[in-house]
Amino acid sequence: MTNSKVLYQTTAINTGGRNGESHLPDKSFSVRVSTPKAMGGPGQGSNPEQLFALGYSACFNSAVEHMMKEDKISGKSQITATVALHSDPTDGGSKLAVKLDVGIEGQDTATTQELANRAHAYCPYSKATSGNIDVTVTAVAYEADK
């Protein structure tokens, strides 16, 4: 860990790996983990890629909202995170790739892309993945449900 001030930390516990259970120590959140059917598993629970997509989309959306606030832009934003698990020929294992589709209500794609690029430099998940996995950030049209 760094010498910087800790703003928040959490702990999660897993037993059974991809075919087990993950939970918070106080049991306030628990999820059955299962290898996806597409990978030969039972697919009867969530998987690490889904959980990563949920976390990254929420974190990235917070970064987008921060940029919107800085620029005094109102409206809703939506992030769709698509996480893919690829084979990794360098070690025979696997690696992740992420596609983030960013939509901001009432904004054109050029403005949305500029905000998304700034958010990508600001987001803790993006900082953690930088240089480690391929992340593509793309502006998309978005109109929030009324």
TrEMBL record:
What Pfam families is this protein classified in?
Answer: OsmC (PF02566)
Top-rank lineage group of the source organism: Bacteria
Q: Where is the segment annotated Disordered?
A: 1-28
**Ranges of compositional bias, category Polar residues:** 1-16
* InterPro entries tied to this protein: KH_dom-like_a/b (IPR015946), OHR (IPR019953), OsmC/Ohr_fam (IPR003718), OsmC/Ohrsf (IPR036102)
Which SUPFAM superfamilies does the annotation name?
OsmC-like (SSF82784)
Which GO biological-process labels does this protein carry? Answer: response to oxidative stress
By sequence similarity, the record places it as follows: Belongs to the OsmC/Ohr family.
What name does UniProt use for this protein? Peroxiredoxin, Ohr subfamily
